[in-house]
């Protein structure tokens, strides 16, 4: 089964009503490759606005969701609230949440379990720091993150993996095609050994970290790169070039 190419836009804590409406208008009017699944993740405050204005073929993701049902959890958003708002996706475990907000592998795994079991698909992020890469620990770090996820979830059909080396995020320092492919291949190998052939074959593995309209085409050719998770460039018109990487 061929894996459908996937491009996610992570707006992070950026945008205003006006600028986000302009991004949505641009996406609605652009000629987009119909063979690509597109999901954009605005800040929580703008989820409903985007869902209301974005054409239905494109999906909307939260950037985070909590791992409890509705209740006394000030500041959090629940899986059922996302669904109630027509939001069928969430990003989880982004390195900014792991490093700045202190989310552990276990917390991220628990949130992933809660979301997927509740019917919300997850773009699950992993990746190493510069220090870890320089110490030759890249694959070990990613495998540890994967193992924590595997300990909590049984159904991988609603999980997309995003490999985002921390040193490449927002730095303009994109991983080389070889560096990215090597880690993607290791992730697929890990899935094959530790989960199943089917999950290894079907799970999409995205690359994230300084992807732009120029470097996307080369990366997209690699056999284990099934799409991108884009930060900064998802706020710019070149996002449509990234969606159309394969054209
Ligand atoms: O963190 C990212 C996407 O989640 C990548 O961010 P940049 O594309 O801005 O490097």
From TrEMBL:
It comes from Echria macrotheca. Belongs to the triosephosphate isomerase family. Keywords: Gluconeogenesis, Glycolysis, Isomerase. The keyword Isomerase applies. Homodimer. It is an enzyme of class 5 (isomerase). Its EC number is 5.3.1.1. It comes from the Eukaryota. It catalyses: D-glyceraldehyde 3-phosphate = dihydroxyacetone phosphate. InterPro entries: Aldolase_TIM, TIM_sf, TrioseP_Isoase_bac/euk, Triosephosphate_isomerase, Triosephosphate_isomerase_AS. The keyword Ribonucleoprotein does not apply. It holds the Pfam family TIM. One of its GO terms (biological process) is gluconeogenesis. GO terms for molecular function: triose-phosphate isomerase activity. Pathway: Carbohydrate biosynthesis; gluconeogenesis; Carbohydrate degradation; glycolysis; D-glyceraldehyde 3-phosphate from glycerone phosphate: step 1/1. PANTHER family: TRIOSEPHOSPHATE ISOMERASE. This is Triosephosphate isomerase. One of its GO terms (cellular component) is cytosol.
């Amino acid at each position: 089964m061929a894996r459908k190419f996937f491009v996610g836009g992570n707006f992070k804590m950026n945008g205003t009503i006006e600028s986000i409406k302009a991004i949505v208008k641009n996406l609605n009017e652009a000629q987009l490759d119909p063979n690509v699944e597109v999901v954009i993740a605005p800040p929580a405050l703008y989820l409903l606005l985007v869902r209301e204005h974005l054409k239905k073929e494109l999906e909307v993701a939260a950037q985070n969701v909590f791992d409890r049902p509705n209740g006394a959890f000030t500041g959090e958003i629940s899986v059922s609230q996302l669904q109630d708002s027509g939001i069928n996706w969430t990003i989880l475990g982004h390195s900014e949440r792991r490093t700045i907000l202190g989310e552990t592998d276990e917390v991220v795994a628990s949130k992933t379990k809660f979301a997927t079991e509740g019917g919300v698909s997850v773009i699950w992020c992993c990746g190493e720091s510069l220090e870890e890469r320089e110490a030759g620990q890249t694959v070990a770090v990613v495998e540890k993150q994967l193992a924590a996820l595997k300990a909590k979830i049984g159904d991988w059909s609603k999980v997309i993996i995003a490999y985002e080396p921390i040193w490449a995020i927002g730095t303009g320092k994109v991983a080389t095609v070889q560096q990215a492919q090597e880690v993607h291949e290791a992730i697929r190998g890990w899935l094959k050994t530790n989960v199943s052939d089917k999950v290894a074959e079907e799970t999409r593995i995205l690359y994230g970290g300084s992807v732009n309209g120029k470097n996307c085409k080369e990366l997209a050719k690699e056999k284990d790169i099934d799409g991108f998770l884009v930060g900064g460039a998802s706020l710019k018109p070149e996002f449509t070039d990234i969606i159309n990487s394969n054209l």
